[in-house]
Amino acid sequence: MFTGIVEELGTVTAVQDQGDALRLTIAATTVLEGVRLGDSIAVNGCCLTVAETADGSWTADVMQETLDKTSLGGVAPGTRVNLERAMALGDRLGGHIVQGHVDGVGTILRRTPSEHWEVVEVSLPPHLARYLVDKGSIAVDGVSLTVVEAGPSSFTVSLIPETLGRTTLGHKQAGEPVNLEVDILAKHVERLLPGTEVRA
Fold first, then answer.
1. What is the pLDDT along the chain (200 residues), one digit of tens a residue?
2. How many helices (H) and strands (E) does the chain have?
3. Residue 78: in which H helix or E strand, if any?
4. What gap in Å lies between CA 91 and CA 41, rounded to an integer?
5. What sections of 45-119 are H helices per DSSP?
6. What is the pTM of this model?
7. Is the separation of the CB atoms in 2 and 99 below 8 Å?
8. Taking the CB of residue 66, how many other CB atoms lie within 10 A of it?
């Protein structure tokens, strides 16, 4: 489990194509503190397992299911990525409950800068719209954010200087993809409602 509070920006240093999978190597510092093989690190909001470590980098395998459902298939050497270690029991929950299980990929539609913040509009796959509400939570590329306005096909978030400076959302431009994870609590509530059909 994660909280959506990005610990650092890492840099992809190698991408090994394995046909139906990718092997990613990412340069990092903070998330390597105390890391062990098998630990979980979220990369742009996608939970990956540490398969190898080296001095100043770590490697993970990305299977086809993940490539199909996230934006990780588009990374290349030099790509900056948001990194967060799994939450330790007893840590503060600074953002919201984030599983690292991406629900869909959206696209940045527009950025509207202000003096002290920036409003960003992101497209939303139609099947995810039901889970968003104004002032609710969503993870965008692994960043815990508050929804400003939730629409049927897009939503907006306001980014403060801290988020703009410490995450990839500070430099992603219109047209670029982002991983989206909706609030798990909303999905559980929907599942418990009478008459809700189970989707295959």
1. 999 999 999 999 999 999 899 999 999 999 999 999 999 999 999 999 999 999 999 999 999 999 999 999 999 999 999 999 999 888 877 888 899 999 999 999 999 998 889 999 999 999 999 999 999 999 999 999 999 999 999 999 999 999 999 999 999 999 999 999 999 888 888 888 876 665 54
2. 3, 13
3. none
4. 16
5. 64-69
6. 0.92
7. yes
8. 20
